[in-house]
Amino acid sequence: MGEAAARPLRADAERSVRVILEAAERVLAEDPGASMEQIAAAAGVARTTIHRRFASRQALIDALASSAARQLARAVDDGRPDTAPPLVAMHRITANVLQIKGAWAFALGLPAEPDSEAAVLHQGIDRSCVAVLERARAEGLIDDAADLEWVRRVYYALIGESLHNEPEGSDPDALAARVIDTLLRGAGPRS
User: Fold this and answer.
1) CB crowding 41-50: b at 16 or more within 10 Å, else e
2) Start and end of every HTH tetR-type domain (predicted)?
3) How far is CA 82 from CA 42, 56, 97, 133, 147, in A?
4) The domain spanning residue 22 has which CATH number?
5) What's the pTM?
6) At what angle do helices 86-103 and 148-165 cross, to 10 degrees?
7) CA distances from 152 to 69, 108, 130 (A)
8) How many domains does the chain have?
9) CA torsion angle 164 170 174 180 (round to 10)
């Protein structure tokens, strides 16, 4: 009986944390100096609820960064970077990442503290990206002489530019196609 009674409470606690983190993203994206009280109001919870879940404002921000990084890592994994054909994986990952980065721009823009969960997740994402690029190179989609670390950084920059310069609500698949086409074919003339 005790275990069954604890399950709904745990689900409520998880839902409460999710609501708080979503509100924190919205509020902090608008005002990075916003208080815990402002975040509580936006989340529709009492200030004490936030303080019960997060010991400090920094703990909330760390949790926000980790949550966003976990979502980004899931978005990359959902693209099946190790098993899908490289071009398919690149497109799916890009569309997924555009959606997550669009929704969690503040949290994903935070510098990850060394050795934090977020930093470890971002390192794993970087490795997955390079692995997909290696597979793309093996299929002749990327030049054999290309520096894959440079290609990864250019790819990330293209994603960033897509997020900053496209109207909100743009089709992530269309943006992904543009990012991948630009990455693999550049701006040169098409034959």
Assistant:
1) ebbebeeebb
2) 14-72
3) 40, 39, 17, 11, 20
4) 1.10.10
5) 0.84
6) 50
7) 18, 17, 7
8) 2
9) 20
